[in-house]
Amino acid sequence: MASSELIPVRSFVTACLERSGAIVEEAGFELVEVLLPEELSSRFATDHLQLAFDSEVARENPQAIFVTFGSPFLEELARLGAGYGRYTVLYCPDPGTGEKRHLEHEIRHHLHFLRCRPPQVIHQWLEEHVFRGFYFRAVFRSFEKREELLKVVVDGYTGQIAFDFEGWWSKVVAAGEPPYQLPFARHLPPEKLYQNACREAEKQARELAASLQRQAAWRMERELARMADYYTQLSQETTKKMAAAGDETKKERLAKQLAAIEADRQRREKDILDRYAVEVDLHLDHLVDYRVPRLHARLELQHKDRCLTTTVLYNLQAHRLEPPLCPLCGQPATRLVPDREGRLICTSHER
Predict the structure, then answer these.
(1) At the top level of its lineage, which domain of life is listed (predicted)?
(2) Smaller CB count within 10 Å for the chain: N or C?
(3) 8 A C-beta contact, residue 324 and residue 336
(4) Which of 9-23, 156-170, 286-300, 315-329 has the lowest mean pLDDT?
């Protein structure tokens, strides 16, 4: 990436296409395959694109569109992105009835409720959930300027960071309008989701800043070494002149000169260290709400003489059961045990 670029072309293109509901997959070095949703197929007169972000790659793949500054494709995509604003909603396809066969068997296989009889599914239903995508713009200022778009997706129902979101959402052909009618699941307050996203974005920004510092370390060390050699030689020459000087006035003048050399060396060293330090400016750029139908399963469990109930979720898009959260620590747990209050808690809190 050239240091003069504020936003890398590839980052902008893939983020804009994914925001529109397209599926973007790596096809090689600086080459991606794009499956467009119906809304964009008519705009680009095709439902499939191959994009190259390097001139040599474009020559080797004549069927690919070379995307660079001033290219017609980039200008069209910029017009598309300008219309999105700061908030976008994308919807999963219609899940149908949502009934999951053998769900009870899968629950018993993946979740372990200790000191309880095997759970029974007494009710299943679908609700629309939101995974909120927070897109942060991070500007890294050091010996060169770099800008990145950091994506953090938070599960609105649990508040957990959805680290594997891209793994299953990338296979979804999203729509701009809801293809179904479902009740909307409860979700945590927006400020809570935002706080969780900020913590994760700050962590990502720190890791990127540390990576930039490691990459620049050899340049800084080389510059510091050249500077040290220069001032060492200058100090040695001045020291020799002092030793050879017979005049006290001249020695005093040379001593002041030597002190000035050392002060200047310290200033230069500080300037170099400051120039290679990484400052980060992080702010929220836009939001994308990913609306996802999830299957709710109400479970009934027998613990001693008590009948306990709990609800677990099944992600139809990811084809997996999602572990419930421990009410004490808020972390997903696959092994739970009833406490004195009848709550199902993870085994790390068991007494």
Answers:
(1) Bacteria
(2) C
(3) yes
(4) 9-23
